[in-house]
Amino acid sequence: MENSDWKNLPFGYYKTDYNIRCYYKNGKWSDLEVSSSEHLNIHIAATVLHYGQEAFEGMKAYRCRDGKIRLFRWEENARRLIFSAEGIKMAPLPMELFREAIFRTVALNKKYVPPYGSGATLYIRPVLFGSGADLGVKPSSEYTFIVFVTPVGPYFKGGITPVDTMICRNVDRAAPLGTGIYKVGGNYAASLRAQMTAKEGGYSTVIFLDAREKKYIDECGPANFFGIKDNTYITPKSESILNSITNMSLIALADRMGMKTERRKIPVEELSTFEEAGACGTAAVISPIRKIFDPGENITYEYCKDGKPGKATMMLYNKLTGIQNGDEPDEFGWMTEVEE
Ligand SMILES: Cc1ncc(COP(=O)(O)O)c(C=O)c1O
Description:
Number of strands: 18
CATH topology of the largest domain: D-amino Acid Aminotransferase, Chain A, domain 2
Order of helices and strands: EEEHEEEHHEEEHEEEEHEEEEHE
CATH architecture of the largest domain: Alpha-Beta Barrel
Oligomer: single chain
Bound molecules: pyridoxal-5'-phosphate
Distance between the termini: 16 Å
Largest sheet: 9 strands, antiparallel
Number of domains: 2
Mean pLDDT: 96
Low-confidence stretches: none
């Protein structure tokens, strides 16, 4: 993939050369299988198709300043996939098999890892699903694990840009004791109605409130929320949100940079007290929030009044992307080299 226009690649699917598959049958995982096909042969009665028995991960490989390819905190993605698998009663994938599968898929497709400085990355998508044939509602006895990669352009083409968001009061993505803490496909299907309403209103994403009381901030589309005030990084504690690896990294960095950090319930009214607000996740690292419109109360909360992200947001963003790109020392040991 030479002379590619890496900077203008969308966040979308782009064919690469190889993917990896692995199968769980009779209580055992198979060896990894390398494939160059973009298709899978699935049984018509597979539990994934009928009962949504599926979990996935999203992570990135970076071409660093020194020319090496590195992954960011892959162990956390491996652990989260095990947690998600257990949450919907799938056979969990051993950490070591996960590691081998993702590192091999990246190495096999190394020509698609965008160059250092382009802002583009190689997105890695591990997926685990129930592939055994069954009709009753019960966990499958067979599972398939696949990993594919696809190069993605920088999330913000013209540099980090604040986004407008909208609070959603008429759709819940997950129930309090449901599956919101797992990275399972059903949560994303459940969020689409709200996402489309936000898009139609000209908002880039939606802010979900806690499903029980509709009083507290939950998540910001497929990302965690944070607010900043009085030198403090504040992020929601909730029983229905995904534990974002980007968020846990920002908390560690904020702490290292001398900020206070709090993970607690954030009442909607508190939005008026934040100096800065943002959404964080693997795709954009941080999307600074310019506006939050609450149609229920007909209030708009505004941040970045001069149109630019706030100081603390930018410091955190630069520090984390600096570590990922190899421009900053990897003080926490978050990056692992991919042998090419
Ligand atoms: C619902 C949801 N919340 C939060 C995140 C952010 O998590 P991470 O930082 O691990 O990408 C994601 C994306 O993976 C997500 O889908």
